[in-house]
Amino acid sequence: MAQQKIVVVGAGYAGVAATKFMSKKLKKDDVEITLIDRHSYHTMMTELHEVAGGRVEPEAVQYDLQRLFARRKNVSLVTDTVIGIDKEKKIVKTKLGKYPFDQLIIGMGGEPNDFGTPGVKEHGFTLWSMEDAIKIRKHIEETVAKAALEPDESTRRAMLTFVVCGSGFTGIEMIGELMEWKKVLAKEHKLRPEEFTLMVVEALPTILNMLDRKDAEKAERFMMKKGIQLKKGAPITEVTADHIVLKDGSQIPTNTLIWTAGVKGTTDAADFGLEAARGQRLYANEYMQAKGYEDKDIYIIGDLVHYEENGDGRPTPQIVQAAEQTGHTAAANIVAKIKNTPKHEFKSNYQGFMVSIGSKWGVANLMDKFHISGFLAIVVKHLVNLLYFFTIRSGYYMFQYMMHEFFHIKNDRNVTRGHSSRYGNVLWSVPLRVFYGSMWLIEASKKVVGDGSYLNPSSWFGSGSWFTDKVVFPFPWLQEQVTTGASAAGAHAAEATTAATGAAGGATDAAANAATHFGLSYAFGENPMPVFEKMPHWFANIMEFMMPNRDVALFMQKFMTFVEIGIALALIFGLFTWLASAATIGLTIVFCLSGMFYWVNIWFIFVAFALMNGSGRALGLDRWVIPWIQRTAGRWWYGTPRSIYGKNSSK
Prior knowledge:
36% of the residues are buried. This protein is of the alpha/beta class. The longest helix is centred in the C-terminal third of the chain and has 24 residues. The chain is built from 22 helices and 27 strands. The strands form nine sheets. The chain has a five-stranded parallel sheet. A five-stranded parallel sheet has the order 11-18-12-13-14. It is globular and about 90 Å long.
């Protein structure tokens, strides 16, 4: 078979899922997959409200396509706008070129549906793209700044009234962000949070209609408790620059209306000559093939597809799960055709729905069995997002997501209420880091110097050091190996017994003094208690496997000394501080299990955890080394991200 050319239009959830699937399944076949999108990045649409609401920066939900597909040799990226499709000649036309195809997947997504409401386009804001989110954020910041200086009370009140139209997931999550952001904005502009008015306007009599009613009612009670006004059964009939008009004729003064009331298929696909359903969505069959063009191998996926799975007139919902599953269906059928295997019908499998209201509270319905709310629902949402990165095989962006959501967050706006944020001053941990490193250096130095003098290097490596022929590990199997000289030692036995009578009188006192005492700090006169009196049996087996004889043990004690010196210097100079701290935790645990560590020094572990907060980036080499490694490794593994991908841009 000649090389198969597969073109995917749209790098949304559906397009990325389809491309990833085909790239993996066809990696041994002669195929070329071209992914075309007007942007050089994939947007995590479900988190746009966090950008619009000032919680995270745009890059937190913007994932470069090069980093997603850098290791996929059969995928080419093109940054361009599709303007037409020649279905007979099987060519995709873009503003900058033409792309022939054997199979075509169209996943260009949707766009806001204002249902023809006057004034929405001119005076309202939508939340359907990165540009939309940034525009909303900038408008709110500027409006609040102006309101703070506005002397007229009614004008000021209108400026501080923020209305969201639509009570679906996007609208409720947007109002939740505003609920938290208003406190920050009020503080920055010397306003009172009570001066802000937050409102959701919904045309239907209920909100969150994809959720179970009990879950939706929980969300409603929470929002009302937080001062969010809900106007249900109140369609908006007109939007102006300074107010909105409801169906009953009442007006709400506001300078900010965020429209999230509906979604339709993108108008960019309207001229492709494919049969359209209501809302500009394109008809497809159970294999996601475009209606009327099944023989042309054209597939429709994501928010753009209109497929009635149950024949009840309701198409697949415009949600992430449906987008990914339609993408997988289309991709699986392309793979099936190339490999000459049976086709796959679309079978939906929605695992549940969840909505966040701010960063700390949410509701979720999982598999239609488990209904959770509050903190736990937000934890589940984060886990679902992390699972998404796993499904698209992007460890890089999984890590970045955790950084943005848990560690690089400001104003306590995350599920841990800011306790995990790195935006604390790590400068004050520098003395602890240097002290801790010095402690390890001193302990390692003892193993080198032994009974010698620090000022006399010629006395090092002698008696008492770990560099002699004496095994220091108290492991029974090693001690048995060094008792072969027992006969020679017997000659000294008689001499040793002469002191027995004199020592007997003090035996009782010595035994008493030998008793160990538990404590987390050393007390004068007490004998500290080891963490383990003897090694656990399972650990002894591991150690005996690693150090089966005296020669290996002598090597290991020298090697561990060098490791401790390396860890000490790394901590003192702030180089690879996280790894060095993790290593000290590991070493300490090994010493504990070996019976060579005392409770009074257990603080070693907790100090190491404390230093894993990035302390090496304050007065340490990590400030320069870690960013350099990230840049260099990123270029090597992913290539260089670009603003435009195409034939003239190298991967």
